[in-house]
Amino acid sequence: MDVKTGFFYLFSVVLLYAAFRVITARNPVHAVLHLILAFSQAAGVWLLLKAEFLAITLVLVYLGAVMVLFLFVVMMLDIRFDTVRRGFWKHFPLAAFIGALVAFEMAAVLMTGFRGVEEPKAVPALVDAAGQVLPYSNTQALGRLMYTEYLYPVEIAAVILLVAMISAIALTLRQRKDVKAGDATAQLRARASDRLVVLKMPTTQAPQPPADDDAGAQEKKA
Prior knowledge:
The protein is mostly helical. The chain contains 10 helices and no strands. Among the domains are: 80 residues, NADH-ubiquinone/plastoquinone oxidoreductase chain 6, subunit NuoJ (Four Helix Bundle (Hemerythrin (Met), subunit A)); 39 residues. Helices cover 68% and strands 0% of the residues. The longest helix is centred in the N-terminal third of the chain and has 25 residues.
């Protein structure tokens, strides 16, 4: 067994263990951490399969953004585990049926193979200005396809994502009456003389007798 095969089995075993712990962990924080571990091992498997773009996308998008967001949300929410676990056995038959159906479909695909699927066409070699053949790069080949043959679908997807981002910002920028927001232009136009008044007071003052002593002296005179 070579080194590549050893790493494949190592990543696969850790991936299966992490995926099993995701669905069996009682603490949701531990489940999210095991899901992060599972994604990292899947990225390692993709690197062994020479899918560098998918591996780096999985690390940057899911591990760097989505899973960190999930982790913060789970840690900030006050989840009552006793109420969540009450409906476990109630929904267990449906969940078991869906899981068995997914496992059957995956087994059918793996056992029958990918019949009727054509082999991928050979990618033309890249040649530099000097006429030398450049080494093959999966990421570079994917980039050439995305920005040459599939340029318009990529641009349409980018426009859709831009519209979704603007819509999300517009929905969250609603004016609420129960929140006091400051006016930035009014704050910039403010002057120190309008908000601060300096009063001139003497530095020293003569001590005054306490009120109790004055009342006692008047009683004695009376």
